[in-house]
Amino acid sequence: MKRELSFGGIFLFISIAAYSQQPVLGDKIEKEFEVTAIPDKWKNESAVIIGQKTEYLFSRLVSGRKFTPVVRIREYIHKRIKLQDKNALEKFSTFYYVTMGKDGKAEYKVIKANGKQVDIDMKSAIEEEKDIPSIYKPIYYKLGVKFLKIAIPDLEVGDIIDYNIRSTIDWDMRTEGIGFTPFIFSLANNYPTLYQQYRFTLVDGMKVRFKAFNGAPNLKMDTKASIFGDDLSYVAYYLQDKDREKTIEERWNYELRNTPSIKFRVIMLADNDPDSKSLGMAYVDRSFLDPEDMYKRFAGAAFYKTTTGNTLVAYTTEYITKKRTDGVLKTDDDIIRETYYCLRKVFLEMYYRGPVHSELEKAMTGKKLYKKVLEQEKKGETKKEEREDEIRMNNIVFATAFRMALGAQGIPAEMFVYMPRKLGAWRDALFLEELDFVMKIKTRKRNYYFEAFNNFDAFAAPYEYLEGVEGYSIGYAELNQYYRTPGPITKFNDNLDRQEYTVSFPESMEVTKVERTSSYLGYEKNDRIGQANFDRDYLNVDFQKYFVDQQKDKGKKKKEDEVMEITSANTKYDDPDKEDRRKKRTELFETDVKGEFDLDKYENFELIKDGRYGDSALLQYNERFTLKKLLSKAGRNYVFEVGKLVGGQIKLEQTELTARQSDIWLPFARTIENNITINIPAGYTVDGLQDLKFSVDNESGSFVTDSKVENDKLIITAKKLYKKNFDKKEMWPNYVAFLEAAYKFSQAKIVLRKK
Amino acid sequence: MRSGNMNRAINIILFSFLSIASFSQTDYSSQLGAWKSKFPEEEFVAASYKTIISFTLNADPKPGFAKVNVLVRNEITIVPTKDFKGFDDGLFYNDQVSIDNVKAVNPKGKEVPLQKRCGSYQSEDIFHDDSKLCTIKFKTEEKGKPFIYYYEENYHDVKYLTSQYFHESFPAVDRVVEFRIPSWLELDFREFNFSNHGIEKTTAKDGDISKVIYNVKDVQAYSRERSAPNHALSYPHVITISKAYTENGQRHVLFESVKDLYAWYRSVCDSTGNDATALKDKVNELTAGKKTDLEKIESIFYWVQDNIRYIAFEDGIMGFKPDAAQNVLKKKYGDCKGKANLLKEMLKVAGFDARLTWIGTSDLPYDYTIPSLAVDNHMICTVIAGGKRYFLDGTENFIGLNDYAQRIQGKQVLIEDGKNYIIDKVPDFSAERNKMKSITTINIGADTLKGTTHVEYNGESKAMLQGVYTSIRNEKKKDALSSFLRHGDDNLILTNVKEPDFKERQKPLQVSFDFKANNQLTKAGNELYIVMDWNKEFSSLEFDDKRKNDYEFSNKYYLDVQTELVIPEGYKVDYLPAAFKKSTSHYSFEGSYTNKGKSILYKKLIVVNKPVLLRSEFEAWNKFIKEINTFYNDQVVLVKNK
User: Fold this and answer.
1) How far is the C-alpha of B256 from the C-alpha of A142, rounded, in Å?
2) Which pLDDT value is given to residue B103?
3) What is the rounded distance in angstroms from the CA atom of residue B385 to the CA atom of residue B401?
4) Which residue, B399, B408, B508, is CA-closest to B458?
5) Core vs surface per residue B449-465: b (16+ CB within 10 A) or e
6) Which of A413, A643, B286, B603 is deepest in the core (most CB within 10 A)?
7) B124 touches chain A (CB under 8 A)
8) Is the pLDDT score of A378 beyond 70?
């Protein structure tokens, strides 16, 4: 009895706003969910989504007559799917789901081909024990999160499954913020969809930020489902979509830019005032992202002082000032470049040579920082991913340090805030969470863009994810200084992948001996530079060049209060694992060659240019190896598969040869060159050169080859250009033309004929 | 008895701490160089790794506990070979085994905090079981400075203590597994894969305790590699057989012989609660109109394969006890036990003598001379018709009656027989059961080769194609089949693919198609250079010295290829590659080109008789492949008639 009273007391104290009748989720099931017949065009699909509906109800908890800061969010998900093959049967044989809140639950039924409906007893669902870190367990417990699974009985091909899941969470605006989770998704699903609806019912004092893209339907008010009360109203908004084909699987496709997509987020207009109902009825906010909001969110990122940052700036300023005094650095471009490299040297020195024997020191030297950076980068997916032996500085610490270090030299820095290309153009941005930033410096010569550096980035080298983006530049000379500007676009000459082969054959003609020099520029360096510099020799170069002699400054008061003693008189980096690293590097490249060819023996790797200094700095290395199977015996003669040397080329599927449904979003323009010199073995001539001639050149790309015999050498050149980073789908035939030519060349063979 | 056990427990704890303290000051920096050669690229090495297994007789066991319990104490001196690395380990447990007293002690002898996350372990094939996994993490310090890592496994029932392995995810310099067997317990051991591992076995007596100690030096880390056989087939381990215990002068048998194992299985299965009446309608429907016994058996067997989905529940005793037949029929899903039991009950309703049958698949090297729960991992149904035993595996998808998947071929079975049991063996088939025969005709076009191919699939090659085809989404089936038939070769374009009946069980699967093969014809002067075999099976299957495990083929192979190239008008044969033949008891290759006047006939026969290739056989295999490649890399040359 006591217990009931106490619960009752709580209920009286905090309850859901009950000034007027509340809507109920899932009470209306649209007639579209009753469909059982599938259109002929989708008869051969694995499964068809007959209907899916996601519904949210946002209400406010009240205490007495006052709103509390807690928003109660109810979620209702309803799906009805026809299973048309064994793949779908296996996939939906088991049902894994999550509920939240005390009243969280799921209902599931199977509609047999004869129309009979079988309700699944969800009591037999098994709750899974998840290995949630203990720190998060209280949160999961508080939210009442349950991970459940059930095997669906008596399920057959031809059945329709129909389930719904209900959850409730109490969202405390004081701790969770006023913006509910943003949703960004394409309306195209994994299976074709006959009908889908998204619905929000909002109590007063809320809004939905919403935008539809690429022909997606708009959000409409549902006056019938809304409840308009004297004290409080609940306004229902919905969008519905019909007859939607499944996701397109095409190469070079950004789904959000090519298919009908929507973005939405419910914003709670925080107000704990008893008169908060004056905030008015919920509405749809279709406005664009306000640049002022962008400014407020991002400008401060270059003002985040830390001990690490102070250390970087203090030492860099000392170095640059001295070099300027010595007359070594003349132009702003010189100062910007050397500031960047000096900052990086100090950072790397802190990381690789810093005292790391305590947790605190680890944090100071970047070890902890690195972990944080990695966590952040996980969110970035393909962008900024960790490569071999790479550490990347935290972008906020970098932005602050770079701005301060350049400021000390009188050079202003800007921050460039941009909308990532895969998400859309700037006008498509709706949420601040979609945006990202880099630093930007303008000189008379050009604009420079800087990501927080890693071990290898060359000064002002292009960043793939900045390609063709749109954004705003934030200046720091005065407050509220920002202006719209496009991001950089590289040309095909900027991104180079060049392979120079010298090929010869031993007398036994059993293998093919190859010496290859690979050169990379621009984006093409990114995937290989970490591996090529795996020996860390570059640290010696950095440490020597950007050495700050602190010995003579001993006893002097430091310029900054919080600066660490990092650099030392030792300008060498003694890596105890140096030999292991060299060996490992060779193994990594050997593995790469194995991926390209049938490797017989990998003999040598030599780094020629490390690619780390300057945006025109080549990454270049030389390898020697022998290959199997490229040479086939044919009587007295040999057939040599010379085309294979240009590496694997894209082979378009038969369906791709004739049709393209979506616009073409290439990562960047680029040049791929192969120059092959074959030492014709003594006593042989070459034949079959007619198969090596290709010349396809159009506005989207090209593939041009040439071959000639000079003395005892066959010289072949092949050049492939991707000229753009974007094309309309109508231009697809251009791509088919040069991609098919390149593939055909890759299969070409010549005959070494015995004289 | 109980107080005695308590004292023993205290002694154990004291021993643990004393031993930890004694290790605490050692520094292994001087040994890192040697370890680097022995265990390259390993970030942690166990200087010592000791597992002590002791037994307790529980006079008054708690619910869920048996009379004989087991305590397995693991003490590992783990040494980082690099500075400041995070050590992590995964410890499995379940309803019968708990993990306790996990701790790590730093080089100064101080216990350090552990990060421990535990939760259900989801294995690939099992929907729900009681397996759980704890991941343990702690940070180490400078290289060479050891941590003591300690944990205990408590077995609630000695019958679940089945196997002890020596390999772990990290290497060990000195690995010890010590059994401390009290006089009241009869324990037996069977050793597997011990050869060439240098494992020493010693015995000692310590009062009432008999010690059996296995010691091995320089144990490499367990290595996961593609196509590695199940670890039971390759890694050394000891199977423990808990035969009996004596309490108050009374001897109690545990698993002394297979009879005891069978008795326990039977006791578990007897309580399944089958209801034959619920099966009658379905059985009558399936057998209606079937004239012979075999037709009736086939009808039921194939229906179960086609209509009962495989979803496994291995929770606690459900790991051994089948779900009732009527439940499986109603739910239309079950695991191997549920399917075997349903088959048995349905066949019994149809009037046949059908029985539950236990079997260890080819993943296990054991037979029923070992009375242990480790010996089998699968259940099927045996039906006896016309005096012959047919073994029905309900988990297979397209297997015919009297045909057996490779994973159960040649394996011993334990067939129920009331209070008794029958030991039998599933027939073993030669590689020819899996014959894939292709007949191709090639014509030379303007720039390409064109032709038709007819392929016949049998056995595993057939089942694999059927399984893959039916599991692919409808709309992708056509492309997937084409890609399969092309062996992924982008130079082939297939048309007119005549699909077989993918549900066919008793006859071979026949597929035919037309093709255009680009880039297999090279023209030079008056000559045509022609590749007649672009599949070149096994040409890349070579092993380097980095591979740590044996290699398991998908199945035994029997590839029979015949390709006829029509010589175009105005051309004649200029060169044919020489024939090649090589044969060992495990594998063979035979290839030849024959000039038949108007055509060239290419024949190839590859047979792999043995599903597992041992590391010791890699060198000979590599040589075999090299010779095959010499044959493959030789082309036909035609020349214009003068």
Assistant:
1) 52
2) 96
3) 12
4) B508
5) bbbebebbbbbbbbbbb
6) A643
7) no
8) no
**Nearest-CA distance B524 → chain A (Å):** 5
Place of tokens 């429907």: B285
Q: Contact B331/A362, CB-based, under 8 Å?
A: no
Residue B636 and residue B573 in contact, taking contact as beta carbons nearer than 8 Å: yes
- Residue A94: pLDDT band with limits 50, 70, 90: very high
For residue A55 the two structure tokens come to: 């519904």
> Is the CB of residue A522 less than 8 Å from the CB of residue A490?
yes
Judging by beta carbons within 10 Å of its beta carbon (0-12, 13-18, 19+), is residue A411 exposed, middle or buried? middle
User: By the CB < 8 Å criterion, does A190 face chain B?
Assistant: no
3-state secondary structure A693-747: CCEEECCCEEEEEEEEEECCEEEEEEEEEECCCEECHHHHHHHHHHHHHHHHHHC
Do B335 and B312 touch, CB atoms closer than 8 A?
yes
- Using an 8 Å Cβ cutoff, are B502 and A75 in contact? no
pTM: 0.89
pLDDT confidence tier of residue A389, bands split at 50, 70 and 90: low
Check CB contact under 8 Å for B332 and A637. no
CA A232/CA A65 separation, integer angstroms: 12
Q: How many CB atoms lie within 10 A of CB B81?
A: 22
Average of per-residue pLDDT across B598-623: 96
| Residue B240 bridge partners (DSSP) | B189
What sign for the dihedral angle of Cα A26, A28, A34, A35?
negative
Going by the DSSP 8-state scheme, the letter that residue B525 receives in this structure is: T
Check if B284 contacts A (Cβ < 8 Å): no
pLDDT at A597 over 60: yes
Torsion of CA A645, A648, A649, A650, to 10 degrees: 170
List pLDDT tens digits, range B126-163. Answer: 888 888 899 999 999 889 999 999 999 999 999 999 99
Average pLDDT over residues A370-390: 41
Residue B582's closest CA among B626, B634, B534, B533?
A: B626
- Residue B629, chain A, CB below 8 Å: the answer is yes
Rounded Cα gap, residues A211 and A288, in angstroms:
9
Q: Distance from A35 to chain B by nearest Cα, in Å?
A: 21
Contact B278/A at CB under 8 A: no
- Asked if pLDDT for residue A623 goes beyond 60, the answer is yes
In this predicted structure, what is the pLDDT of residue A165? Answer: 97
Confidence of residue A420 (pLDDT cuts 50, 70, 90): very high
Full DSSP string of A38-56: PPGGGTTSSEEEEEEEEEE
pLDDT tens digits, residue range B550-583? 999 999 999 999 999 999 999 999 999 999 999 9
